[in-house]
């Protein structure tokens, strides 16, 4: 069993899909590992560390040749898989709805494409969940990015020259990223409030020492919603939420938005009119900017000024913490493959619950139901 680790080709992608730690573990399972030269350079994993862990470090064609499993962070161009064993697995965040052409090309090339972001949110798959591991780091980094753009301090400081008051931070969307953003802003001494459409988050917000800001007039999503995710809200809910946000946002110094709806564009939570009510020097970080954006006027890949407020729209936030993001991503992939490792077969064999959820292509065809309908 040969596992190939690719150097990421996407613009600005600094992460790597295996670390020397996971290479060692794959070798302990009985696999051979080949790593493309320079694959971990931007994530504090030099070639020498992979070699010391037992990997063969080589050029792409030699790495991919006869590999049965190819690991990536983002999906590679199908041409990069040329020479892999017939039916080889490509395991990565494949963005199947954004890169449908590529999925077709994987099918045509006869590879089995496994989209790690489609991993079901079930207890036994938590350790394989790349969305959680990466979102957690994004939530943390969003607060640091906000603090870096903010021309004031976050904690209250009592100095001989006078008192600086604590920054008010508002977190919109309290999933994995939002919870970590709340915790990070609290650690930095900010006064934190947060909101979500899922009623279950109220208690989580409080347990982190932040203030819940909720639409009470119109019902949100009771419990955890479908698979823990939010859905599109009614017009009445949206109107009540906009009113609530308008009243609250004018008093905030930093807003972090993280709201996503699976399979749909991100919900618009902050309008230009609302931004104009914030005081000059305030900062808004839109973590959903690449999915359509929660904030009117936020631009992917840029920091823009609107009414004296800085709108921060960094792309690929986990990649901004490439070493830790890679370490966790790599462990997710190892946890996935090792959980299903069949000792007799000397390779992983998936069960139906997880296999059917993440498998996009097999036997030369696209097989995922969400891509067929
Ligand atoms: P997500 O990234 O899909 O969305 C982020 C947050 O935005 C969610 O909390 C969502 O409710 C919220 N949101 C959506 N529309 C909104 C709106 N209009 N206004 C305000 N907020 C809005 O979510 P996520 O981080 O992937 O987590 C979703 C849930 O899944 C959480 O409850 C999490 O604990 C759960 N989860 C479970 C597992 C598991 O059991 N394996 C793993 C990870 C996450």
Low-confidence spans: none
**Continuous helix count:** 12
Approximate shape: globular
Rounded to an integer, what's the Rg over CA atoms? 22 Å
Distance between the termini: 35 Å
Largest sheet: 7 strands, mixed
Overall pLDDT level: 95
Portion in helices:
25-40%
Output the CATH topology of the largest domain: Rossmann fold
Q: By CATH's scheme, which homologous superfamily of the largest domain applies?
A: NAD(P)-binding Rossmann-like Domain
Tally of discrete structural domains: 2
Q: Please state the second-level CATH architecture of the largest domain.
A: 3-Layer(aba) Sandwich
- Small molecules bound: nicotinamide-adenine-dinucleotide
Name of the CATH first level of the largest domain: Alpha Beta
Count of individual beta strands: 19
Strand content: 15-25%
Strand order of the largest sheet: 11-10-9-12-13-15-14
């Amino acid at each position: 069993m040969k596992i190939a680790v690719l150097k990421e080709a996407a613009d600005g992608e600094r992460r790597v899909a295996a670390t020397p730690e996971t290479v060692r573990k794959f070798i302990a399972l009985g696999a051979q590992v080949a790593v493309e030269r320079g694959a971990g350079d931007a994530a504090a994993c030099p070639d020498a560390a992979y070699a010391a862990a037992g990997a063969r470090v080589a050029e792409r064609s030699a790495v991919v040749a006869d590999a049965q499993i190819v690991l990536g962070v983002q999906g590679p161009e199908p041409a990069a898989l040329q020479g892999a064993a017939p039916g080889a697995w490509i395991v990565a965040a494949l963005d199947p709805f954004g890169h449908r052409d590529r999925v077709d090309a994987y099918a045509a090339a006869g590879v089995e494409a496994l989209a790690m972001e489609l991993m079901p949110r079930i207890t036994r798959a938590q350790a394989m969940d790349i969305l959680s591991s990466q979102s957690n780091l994004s939530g943390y980094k969003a607060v640091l990015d906000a603090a870096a753009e903010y021309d004031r301090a976050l904690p209250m400081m009592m100095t001989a020259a006078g008192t600086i008051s604590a920054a008010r931070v508002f977190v919109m969307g309290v999933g994995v990223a939002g919870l970590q953003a709340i915790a990070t802003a609290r650690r930095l001494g900010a006064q934190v409030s947060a909101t979500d459409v899922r009623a279950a988050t109220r208690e989580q917000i409080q347990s982190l020492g932040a203030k819940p800001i909720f639409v009470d007039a119109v019902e949100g999503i009771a419990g955890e919603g479908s698979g823990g995710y939010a859905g599109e809200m009614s017009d009445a809910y949206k109107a009540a939420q906009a009113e609530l946000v308008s009243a609250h946002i004018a008093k905030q110094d930093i807003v972090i938005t993280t709201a996503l709806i699976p399979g749909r564009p991100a919900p618009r939570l902050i309008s230009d009119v609302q931004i104009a009510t914030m005081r000059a020097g305030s900062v808004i970080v839109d973590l959903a900017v690449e999915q359509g954006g929660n904030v009117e006027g936020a631009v992917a890949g840029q920091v823009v000024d609107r009414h004296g407020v800085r709108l921060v729209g960094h792309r690929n936030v986990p990649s901004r913490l490439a070493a830790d993001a890679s370490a966790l991503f790599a462990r997710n992939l190892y946890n996935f493959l090792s959980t299903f490792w069949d000792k007799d077969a000397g390779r992983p064999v998936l069960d139906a619950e997880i296999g059917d959820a993440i498998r996009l292509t097999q036997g030369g065809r696209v097989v995922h139901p969400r891509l067929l309908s």
